Amino acid sequence: MATATTFDVGKMRVHILDDGVFVTDAGNLFGGSRKASIKGAMHPILVEAGDDLVLIDAGFGPELPGILVGRYELRRDENLLDHLGEAGYDAGDVTHVVLSHLDADHVGWALNPPSFPNATVYVQEAALDEARQMPEKDGRRAAVPDVEKGVEEGWCELLDADGEILPGVRVEVRAGHSAGHQIVWLEDGDDLALYTADLAPAKIWLNPDLIAGVDTDPEAARKNRIEVLSEAESRGAPVILYHEPGDFLVKVKSTEKGFEAVPIED
Ligand SMILES: [Zn+2]
Question: pTM for the whole thing?
Answer without folding.
Answer: 0.95
